[in-house]
TrEMBL record:
It catalyses: Exonucleolytic cleavage of poly(A) to 5'-AMP. It is found in: Cytoplasm; Nucleus. This is poly(A)-specific ribonuclease. It comes from Pongo abelii. Its EC number is 3.1.13.4. One of its GO terms (cellular component) is CCR4-NOT complex. PANTHER family: CCR4-NOT TRANSCRIPTION COMPLEX SUBUNIT.
Length: 121
């Protein structure tokens, strides 16, 4: 996969099943000198909302995020590598791992029951 260039000399590599092993070899080398790692995750979205009383809007937002992350499967994981000075390695410095996603694999009735039965604060 060709890498995409973004601001601040970041070069992103899209990782799929077809290039996973090759990109993991590159990461094993990069991490030796660039051991600070920023991580970003992507999930399909919001499919359920927590019910109950919450101490604050921040608590509600946390429970909303937690419920959906617990119920859904990750669709993308991003890793960016820097050194202790915040400098990026030359070339590729961010890898986006793309996971299979199929919305029909979810049992939403079960998810709603699970949420309804759980005693959220």
């Amino acid at each position: 996969m060709p890498a995409a260039l973004v601001e601040n000399s970041q070069v992103i590599c899209e990782v799929w099943a077809s290039n996973l092993e090759e990109e993991m070899r590159k990461i094993r080398e990069i991490v030796l000198s660039y051991s600070y790692i920023a991580m970003d995750t992507e999930f399909p979205g919001v499919v359920v909302r927590p019910i109950g009383e919450f101490r604050s809007s921040i608590d509600y937002q946390y429970q909303l995020l937690r419920c959906n992350v617990d119920l859904l499967k990750i669709i993308q994981l991003g890793l960016t590598f820097t050194n202790e000075k915040g400098e990026y390695p030359s070339g590729i410095n961010t890898w986006q791992f793309n996971f299979k996603f199929n919305l029909t694999g979810y049992d939403f009735g079960y998810m709603v029951k699970l949420l309804t039965d759980s005693r959220l604060p």
